[in-house]
Amino acid sequence: MAFIEWSSELDTGIQVIDNQHQRIVEYINKLHHAQEHHTREEVANVLDELVDYTLSHFAFEESLMEDADYAFVNAHKRVHQLFVKRVGGYQQRFKLGEDIAEELMHTLQAWLINHIKNDDRDYADAVRHNVQHVDDKKAGWLKRSFGRVFG
Questions:
Q1: Is 62 inside a domain boundary?
Q2: Which of 18, 47, 77, 80 might form a disulfide with 58, Cβ 3.0–4.6 angstroms?
Q3: Cα–Cα distance, 134 to 2 (Å, whole number)
Q4: Average pLDDT in the 147-151 region?
């Protein structure tokens, strides 16, 4: 059984973001499985993958908010920065040999669900509105956003 079950109540209504959130849930579930059934090295690998993917997701999400002129983009970025710092602390403790798995799993679960249901829902209308009104002749919002984040 998965540690976190995806449900429609986590949908933002922005398919690309919902897909990324589902991928983060998959990584968290993979981390949970690795922690229960595999070596410490496997846990480290999954944790690194989770962090890397989440950083890319945050950058992409922030670019969508900027494109939509979302009024609270800086506050949302700060929430992301604080989370990255918090998870970085877990990574550091893990590298020093501490068993942080259970604490980390519960932190990830609670933070992600709360973040999606509250912080991400706050920007969803602005981004959806922007997506609907972008002129496709100007390269489209998705292409611009991917280009900004992924070069």
A1: yes
A2: 80
A3: 38
A4: 56
